[in-house]
Write a structure and sequence with these properties.
309 residues; alpha/beta; three-stranded antiparallel sheet
Length: 309
């Protein structure tokens, strides 16, 4: 491949110690211990409608604090390193990730975070962003939302000028929840169109159950372009199989762990590289032998006595 697109989901980060939120019982149990009277799990903890209720908001912040703690102790997986290798070889156009763990960042992978990032917090009012500090994590763990520093600065200036007090925003992780718009949605759409115009020839979709409509649409668009030329290939790698709507989209479906698949691919590529090197060496030796034989023939010809007439 010369122009690959990679799409990733939570499945590629499980081996790093970050659970798939659809089955992350450990985190949910921690939240239940702190908020026993509130029941939230699965998608509910990532739905913007939870901000309508004070109790569910507290659960959300506690969950985010525990999640940040896990992310800070996580390391990139073999799958992340595979994507990095595509980058280093100049084969990767871009990686579109649904993950919020920002594990791609330290590997210099050109990644677009479709659902935001846990590396930052964002104001619910003015949208200012700040680093997700340890102090913010401590406040979140208690179910509390820190006040936005920028809103505090604006409010202090208004007070100095004798103006009336306005509402101040609070901070939350800079992630995109269900039922809310991505603040950088237009920019992401432009990047996707730019990548599609470059005519990708390979797409690898890993660790995602393909539930988000906008991402499904992009994958199908990319697949049509990839299949428009001979040799284009679309690969799906996940623990669970896709539904029938993807039958004509994916050329290969690998049911299993993405790290295990990467190990197989790396071994095969290493074997092929070794075979290529061996074949090249044999061709080089054969050529050298042929040249030596020609030199010997020339020497024999030159050593023969010339006939005098």
């Amino acid at each position: 491949s010369k122009r690959a697109i990679v799409v990733t989901g939570a499945g590629i980060s499980c081996s790093s110690g970050i659970p798939d939120f659809r089955s992350s019982d450990g985190l949910y149990n921690l939240v239940k211990q702190r908020h026993p009277g509130t029941v939230l799990k699965g998608q509910e903890l990532f739905d913007a409608t939870l901000f309508r209720n004070e109790k569910t908001v507290k659960c959300f912040y506690t969950f985010m604090a525990e999640l940040r703690s896990l992310i800070n102790n996580a390391n990139p997986t073999l799958t992340h390193e595979f994507i990095q290798s595509l980058t280093e070889k100049g084969q990767l156009l871009r990686c579109y990730t649904q993950n919020i763990d920002f594990l791609e960042e330290n590997l210099n992978i050109p990644a677009i975070q479709l659902h935001g990032t846990m590396k930052q917090v964002r104001c619910t009012l003015c949208s200012a962003t700040f680093d997700f500090s340890d102090d913010y994590e401590k406040q979140f763990r208690e179910g509390e939302a820190p006040t936005c520093p920028q809103c505090e600065t604006f409010e202090a200036e208004r007070a100095r000028q004798g103006k009336r007090q306005l509402a101040m925003g609070t901070l939350r992780p800079a992630i995109v929840l269900y039922n809310e718009e991505h603040p950088n949605g237009d920019h992401i759409g432009q990047l996707q169109m730019t990548d599609l115009k470059k005519k990708p020839d390979l797409m690898i979709v890993m660790g995602t159950s393909l539930k988000i409509p906008a991402l499904k649409k992009f994958i199908k668009q990319a697949a049509r372009i990839i299949h428009s030329k001979p040799g284009g290939c679309v690969v799906f790698v996940n623990r669970t199989s896709p539904t029938k709507e993807w039958d004509k989209v994916f050329d290969y479906e690998v049911l299993g762990d993405s790290d295990e698949w990467v190990e197989i691919v790396n071994k095969k590529m290493a074997d092929e590289k070794l075979m290529t090197q061996t074949a090249n060496k044999l061709r080089r030796l054969a050529k050298e032998r042929e040249e030596e034989d020609e030199e010997e023939e020339d020497e024999k010809e030159n050593s023969k006595p010339s006939r005098l007439k």
